[in-house]
Known about the structure:
Blueprint: E1 5-6, E2 14-20, H1 41-50, E3 55-58, E4 72-78, H2 84-94, E5 99-103, H3 110-127, E6 131-134, H4 144-153, E7 159-161, H5 164-169, H6 177-183, H7 185-188, E8 191-196, H8 225-243, E9 248-254, E10 266-268, E11 274-276, H9 280-305
Parallel strand pairs: 2-3, 2-9, 3-4, 4-5, 5-6, 6-7, 7-8, 8-9
Antiparallel strand pairs: 1-9, 10-11
Helix pairs in contact: 2-3, 8-9
Amino acid sequence: MSRFLNDGSTDAPRLRVYLNLDSLLDLQDGHGAARAFPTDPAERDALLARDGFEGVQRTDRSAPQGPTCLPYCGANRIDKPGEVDAIVARHVARGDNCLTLHAGTGLEDDAAACRLAEALLAAADRQRFAVFLETHRATITQDLWRTVQLLRRFPELRLNGDFSHYYCGQEMPYGDWAQKMAFMEPLFARTGFLHGRIASPGCMQVPISREWTQRPPQAHGVVDFLAHFRDLWGRAIRGFLQHAGPGDVLVFAPEILSGAHYYARCFPDAQGRLVEESDRYAQALIYKDLIRTLFAEQLAAAAGASGGGAVAPARAR
């Protein structure tokens, strides 16, 4: 059992691009005007499908949705081992195809963090359901060193890699980048879900331009944060391809948030209104195309490494 999301087919491991629906909250068009988006799930999903998304990540706790909607996965948090079973079971019953979880507050000692990981794995096994522990500030995975130790103890864990929390929260460019990439290999090998957000060393969420092969104008400082995220996401894709099996799916979900929790930066316009610096949905469309390009590059590299034949990834152990 690989513990990645699996669709039951014999298809080669592949990518699916979802959209985290929090990306649509309080949406502006980049000039401060409210951007209209359908509130009806069927209309919303029809628009998203037209724009190339293959599913959505719901962050609500409401009922299942109808058959006209895109496939959906869930998101939640756990704070106590005893609550994990019921939370996972609710998402299974709702029809989610997988689940990402925040675990704990980051204040737990090692024993408490391990109990949360054990409960997550046990619930996922009982439900035969893909559950991804998210890398996130203010949780048990907030620290790179501690997360790697957790994976050494529980190698069967699978992750939702939101690398913006490490890149900004631990200022990853400060130091030896290559050494940090090597240290993170256990994470890349276990990433089955990616939250798409690009950070700078000093800001959790920054926009990029569509010319993603070039250094973006926004990367005006010492480091090119887009190049770093291309590296991070490329390594996670490679790790997935090396450890996934037939039917396994890597989900990439842009999660580009509003300014409510100070993710989207807001600046006063000529009238003094606070305006977000970018159109978050337009950014999600850029991310969608970028990740598909990166996935194709990693597939081609894997095919070349295997002598040009079909890629046959090894199963995770």
